[in-house]
Amino acid sequence: MLNFSVLVFNAGSSSLKFALYETKVVGDMRLVIRGVVSHIGAMASLYWNDGTTGAHIIVEAKNHQQAAEWVLDWLQHLWPFGSLLEGLVLVAHRVVHGGTFFYNPVVITEQVMAKLDSLTPLAPLHNPQAISVIRATQEKLHEKLLMLAVFDTAFFQDLPQHSGYALPESFSHAHGIKRFGFHGLAHQFMMQRFHQLHPRQHSHHGIISFQLGHGCSVTAISDGKPLDTSMGFTPLEGLVMATRAGDIDPGILIYLLKNGHQLDELEQKLNHHSGLLGLSKSSDDMRELLAREVYDVDAKLAVDMFCYRARKYLGAYMAVLGGADAVLFGGGIGENSPEIRKRICADMHWCGLQLDDARNQQATSVTNATLISSDSSSISVYVIAVSEEAVIAEEARAVLMSYPENLI
Q1: What is the pTM of this model?
Q2: Taking the mean position of all CA atoms in its chain, how far away is CA 125?
């Protein structure tokens, strides 16, 4: 069977990642090129890498639609190498929230788009951006091209019911309220990478995986299945994040509503002005906060609360799993901040977890997977360079197998 290409789009709140793979229906996938358009709406730039070289390019991208159009034009007319989209048969899009509609990858139709749009209130930082990228792709590429949506919530579809919310049925059933979980693709990738490193333990281990970036979450996994995860009905719950509050007493929101604050204002504050930014009053960048915490009490509080909340979940998920075999760190902060990893794992000797300082300092996202625990630690700790795009491409290829062969 001839080779064909799969293009993956991964829309974040202010970025757009993409990856192009060459593959067959069965066999290894070869990464052709990957990149990211960062700071969409501001000073946007594209960084790309094909495995041997890479570069930054300033782009005009006021929104995700323009970013997607720019990337597609660039791939189509990539000078001096020619078009990279000649063998393209499939485009797969990461969608954060599938709600109760979608638990598996789905072929995108207008009916699917309508349901995705209805889920916007549950993931306002992500679903609208993914929808705009899908629309841009539909307009720029051949209308018969197969397009799929792959969902961040799918990994958590079988979470135990007791990990949910103690709400009356009139709330939970009538409004479809449950713990959906997010960052599923990232947690799935980390789990699978650990399985590759420890094939003999493939079905007999407990994993606690941290995805720490602009958004942050932690998941407890037993025998390949998630038992609990920090994000819930929406991506607002759980850890302290760049601009999101994480866990909060719901009574606070009731109190604020009763005292003159409006729903739209609360949504804006909780999504865009809380977390590291709200605590520090000036920045949501962990690197900047770490540099300033020595003399800036607000920056120090932001970092301390971030690490405290993560440690709190680490201990809680040790209890959920009855002890863990591995702790995995991924995401921009998780992969690139030895100091944050050190603080989260500090004083965990009671459960057998101990980092090796030298290994921890040397580990970055440049390496695929790096052991950072000490030889005496009974729990393995790894830094894993997460590729959600690789998981999306594999999921999309599996769907393609059920389609007529003349598509490829």
Answers
A1: 0.92
A2: 13
